[in-house]
């Protein structure tokens, strides 16, 4: 909701800044609203101590699932409102990538668990080195 509101305010700002509208103070006011909402969005997250790679991967997986659910709800709304362009945009630019990310993160969580993480620091080290790839830095 906050993201939506910030985009609406930004849209208003650009509208009032157009040459054919030329209401720069309206534009400035709406741009300030958008910036405030964007700053609010970018505040420090609730958690910044991830404890382990496994915990971070589990949190990332949960976040990706929530994002996918929101995108699916937006897609349904676009379908209900008969907006095929938005449906296509969401499908092409987001949903396929989301499914790939969820599958990959799910696999990582499973493999880390099988390797003994988070109890085994060696498991996370080996996973980081061989699965996530540290080979570019070791030429």
Automatic annotation (TrEMBL):
Q: Which residues bind Fe cation?
A: 30, 33, 64, 98
Q: Which InterPro entries match?
A: Ferritin, Ferritin-like, Ferritin-like_diiron, Ferritin-like_SF, Ferritin_CS, Ferritin_DPS_dom
Enumerate the subcellular locations listed in this protein's record, separating them with semicolons. Cytoplasmic vesicle, Autophagosome
GO annotations under biological process? intracellular iron ion homeostasis; iron ion transport
| Source organism, top-level taxon | Eukaryota
Protein keywords: Iron, Iron storage, Metal-binding, Oxidoreductase
Alphabetically, the GO molecular function entries are:
ferric iron binding; ferrous iron binding; ferroxidase activity
Catalyzed reactions per annotation? 4 Fe(2+) + O2 + 4 H(+) = 4 Fe(3+) + 2 H2O
- Choose one Gene Ontology CC annotation of this protein and give it: autophagosome
Q: Where is the Ferritin-like diiron domain?
A: 1-116
Q: Describe its function.
A: Stores iron in a soluble, non-toxic, readily available form. Important for iron homeostasis. Iron is taken up in the ferrous form and deposited as ferric hydroxides after oxidation.
Family classification: Belongs to the ferritin family.
What is this protein identified as? Answer: Ferritin
